[in-house]
Amino acid sequence: MLDQIRTLIAAALDERDASQAAVEAILAVAETEGRSDMTAEETEKFDVARAELREIDDKITALQARESDLVDLATRSDKAAEVRKEVLPMNIRVVSEEKTYRADGEHDFLSDAIAAKFGNDNAASDRIARARDEALAEYRSTSGNFGALVVPAYLTDQFAATLASGRPFLEAVTKVALPATGMSMFIPRGATSTGVAAQTTEGTAVTNQTFTESDLTVPVRTFAGQQVVSRQSIDRGTGIGQILLADLYQQYATKVNVSALSGDGTAGGHFGILNTTSVQTAAWTGTTGASLVAAIHNALGKINTSRFAPGDLIVMHPRRWAYLCAQSDSSLRPLVAIEGYNSFNAVGAGAAAAYGYVGSIAGVKVITDAGIPTNLGASTDEDRIVVTRASDVLFMEDAGAPVGLTLNEVAAASLNVTMVTYGYSAFTAGRYPVATCNLQGTGFKQVLS
């Protein structure tokens, strides 16, 4: 768990470096031109970049707090172990020996197991027995594993977590605290503006138009999962509880993110950005990377035209970013300049092998998210690209979500333990639907094979 938290911190620090660079680039323009003030457009970009930087700092602070808690727990555990050694009877000598089976050891557990079982190899049998005693001494015995054989601990230590796409999209949009009560959030939106017009002549009536508003209703959704395991697996297994809770957390993050991307509001899910009413759409029907770049520019233009403010976030599936990175113009020059390589007339830049924040196209931040569906279109083989304005897309979530519970009482009569993860959240891209343009069309059949 500690390694996972530190990986998230490292990723957040990389994200912060990119955001800090964006802030400094905006300031550098005014400084280069000898101006003490920024233009309105620069001010708006600066405010967005600064808000994003603060948001990343808050995320880093929260992750560091979790890291500190885990380190504190580990430190306390180590101190308890030292105390335990001090109170052992004086006539007991504690020694540390190399384990029979190690990842870098001389003998292989599986080979010895086969030799002992079917080859009557006495030396292998002795090593198996010694490994069994080592495991029992550490309370790591697991019943039913190949008869009397005990799997050596290092195989468990190499546990590989299940794969989950995570929530790059939700980490890139605007996050606000979910109110403490209520299962629906109401966001007032202006419907009819006030009126202003030139006064025809002096003393004539001034234009009067009544302002009206309408409420946007955003439902609060509950995402939850559970796992029922035996008391024995928790007490005598190796990190079973931590593994299961970590997996539940990963699945929670992934499912909420997928719902925010493509949910249709049914079965308790969010109204995802791909299915939000009144968002704009643009088509990509070409067969080249250049035609896709043109479609992205079209989407950005539609947002500028209707929202009167720029789109600043492009979300695509990793396979679409890989496709773009592989494209070149008629002179075989890459469309996307990969980090570490020079490219002339590139329309984008970034890291081909990254996930989450990967670079930019047309100067707009690009993130990849495997939560983007790839089974859309008439032939169910198309993905989509979302072009949006991050500050106009809202994700509300409990500050402590997801909550992880270990319930011993639910099935105590059967010696079962129920592990539950849940969280409340609300999502909407409907505050300014015209701030989003979803790219769709038969061009998305183009993939690398």
Brief overview:
The chain is α/β, with parallel strands linked by helices and about 450 residues long. The chain has helices at about 1-30, 40-85, 110-120, 120-135, 155, 170, 230-235, 240-260, 290-305, 320-325; strands at about 175, 185-190, 210-220, 220-230, 280-285, 315, 335-340, 350, 355-360, 365-370, 385-390, 395, 405-410, 415-430, 435-440.
Provide the CATH topology of the largest domain.
Major capsid protein gp5 fold
Identify the overall geometry. globular
| Rg over alpha carbons | 29 Å
The end-to-end distance, rounded to whole angstroms, is 36 Å
Overall structural domain count: 2
Give a short account of the largest sheet: 8 strands, mixed
Number of helices: 10
Structural class: alpha/beta
**CATH class descriptor name of the largest domain:** Alpha Beta
Low-confidence stretches: 88-94, 138-147
Order of helices and strands: HHHHHHEEEEHHEHEHEEEEEEEEE
Question: Biggest sheet: strands side by side, in what order?
Answer: 5-15-11-6-10-9-8-7
**CATH evolutionary superfamily of the largest domain:** Major capsid protein gp5
- The average pLDDT is 84
CATH architecture annotation name of the largest domain: 2-Layer Sandwich
How many extended strands? 15
Helix content: 25-40%
Q: Strand share of the residues?
A: 15-25%
